[in-house]
Specification:
Layout: E1 9-13, H1 17-28, E2 33-37, E3 40-44, E4 54-59, E5 72-75, H2 79-88, E6 92-99, E7 106-111, E8 117-122
Parallel strand pairs: 1-4, 5-8
Antiparallel strand pairs: 2-3, 3-4, 6-7, 7-8
Length: 124
């Protein structure tokens, strides 16, 4: 028996991979790794070889960025500097830093350079 199903991978659609990759690298202060896969192009978020959830930006003709639908939450050390960089690099804050109940941390949501709604989570 495998136990509960948990996310293992996510993909954030892009219209312009160069623009999206630059946006995420700037706001998160990380380097994404480009991975071409036939007609699909990925820019993979770092995961440090750890066996947990990771994901990528994806550019494919059948996928489009969206403000409605599922929301991916990225874990960060501190929401405030990331949210500031979001606004400095062309994104918009949709939900400001908000406390979760029972000391579960904090979350926020923003619109990225492509028009996706993306969430952030931090313990502090």
């Amino acid at each position: 028996m495998l136990g509960p199903t948990v996310p293992a991978w996510f993909e954030i659609p892009t219209s312009d991979m160069n623009r999206a990759q630059a946006f995420y690298e700037r706001i998160l202060d990380v380097a994404l790794k480009r991975e071409p896969m036939g007609e699909t192009e990925l820019a993979v978020f770092p995961y440090g070889g750890r066996p947990h959830v990771s994901g990528a930006l994806i550019h494919h003709a059948e996928l489009s960025p969206a403000i409605q639908g599922s929301v991916v939450y990225l874990s960060v050390d501190d929401l405030q500097p990331v949210l500031q960089r979001v606004q400095e690099h062309g994104g918009d804050m949709l939900v400001p830093r908000t406390a979760l109940p029972d000391d579960m941390g904090y979350y926020a949501q923003f619109r990225d350079s492509e028009g996706n709604r993306v969430g952030l989570w931090s313990a502090v």
